[in-house]
Amino acid sequence: ELFFITNFCKIVSGLNPKMAVPFATDFVLLDDNQRWINKVKFPREKIKEFYNSFTKGSTEVEIIEAYSNDYFVDNKFIQTSIYHQKKLESNLLDTIDAEYKTEIEAKRNPTYLTKDESKLVIEKIKQHILDKQYIIPEPVRKRIKFSLKIIDAKNDNILTTSFRGTNISFTVSDLPDEDIDLLIEIRSKTLVYALDNEWGGDAIIIGYGAEIFIYSEDSVKFEYENYCVRLLSRYPNTKEYLKKEPWRAIKYLLADDVKRNNLINKALRNPDKMVDYSDPILGKRDLWLNKSKCDICKACNI
Q1: How many degrees, rounded to 5, is the angle at CA 41 between CA 37 and CA 45?
Q2: Please, are residues 130 and 62 in contact by the beta-carbon 8 Å criterion?
Q3: Are strands 210-214 and 19-20 parallel, antiparallel or unpaired?
Q4: How far apart are CA 203 and CA 210, in angstroms?
């Protein structure tokens, strides 16, 4: 969160606009095991103060604290959102239980799949993994064994996929094997959406649709969890997208230095040696998942 807000301040101070409107965190998570995330997000009401401290008052950019239904007319900010008054009365996070009572109850009392429905979902996953396994470079793939738990299914709701050995193997059980690299927990609805829609994987990657438990350091170092989540989506890889939309892809890469360099770095990667040529900071997966807050702050200069 500090990394994101610091970059926001860097970009705004560099552009030096009349106004800046941070807006991308207008959501709350309602699953009991995810609600802690609501509390660690950087408070919107403190962004203006943070920006002024960051720039030491050297710019006159107006940081706008906007909420749903607010709008602008001729560069004038019009506050019509009910949340301006609500946050004066209490912390907005304290209203979640009352405002989303029905939704929270639904989260806590899911409708479970029948045995036949569960089998159909698992067979769908197996076929998809068989069809999509090529996205993982073979030297990496042959090291991976992971389990997928469908949390709204009962009994035999864990599918374990092993790429180790000569051929891919699947087992279905109530418990994950002890030697897996990672465990992914996900609802069937989210999973099926990801499998059925080209960009449906966003429900997992961006939408907090799964929890991933990592058991081996290699999982972090060599992106096992990234590959395994992609196995549960229909994202086109770079080659596929270049074939499908060649002119759009080329235009995009020509206009975006970061994406272009990232593509070149991936092309230079030697999968046999599994060498990582990615961005020196953002590409340090070990930094984000294994290091301390102080280590991250030093590496990111925040």
Answers
A1: 145
A2: no
A3: unpaired
A4: 9
pTM of the model: 0.79
Kindly tell me if the per-residue pLDDT of 94 is higher than 70.
yes
**What confidence score (pLDDT) does residue 23 get?**
84
Say how far apart CA 49 and CA 30 lie, in whole Å.
29
CB contact at 8 A, 168 and 146: no
Dist CA 188 CA 113 (whole Å): 8
DSSP class per residue in 39-97: HHSPPGGGHHHHHHHHHTT---PEEP---TT-EEETTEEE---THHHHHHHS-GGGGHH
pLDDT per residue over 251-283, tens digit each?
A: 877 777 766 776 676 666 554 444 443 445 656
- The number of C-alpha atoms within 13 Å of 54 and in the hemisphere containing its C-beta is 23
Which tokens belong to 273? 């040696």
- Quick one: pLDDT at residue 282? 59
pLDDT at 27: 86
SS3 281: coil
CA atoms within 13 A on the CB side of 60: 1
Token representation of residue 247: 């002119």
- Rounded CA-CA distance 210/141 in Å is 21
DSSP line for 209-258: -EEEEE--HHHHHTTHHHHHHHHTS----HHHHHHHSHHHHHHHHHH-HH
Say how many residues make up the chain: 302
pLDDT single digits (tens) 82-93: 999 988 888 888
Q: For residue 295, give both structure tokens.
A: 């280590």
Q: Considering the chain, what is the average pLDDT of its residues?
A: 87
Distance CA 182, CA 216 (A): 7
**Which structure tokens are listed for 143?**
């090291």
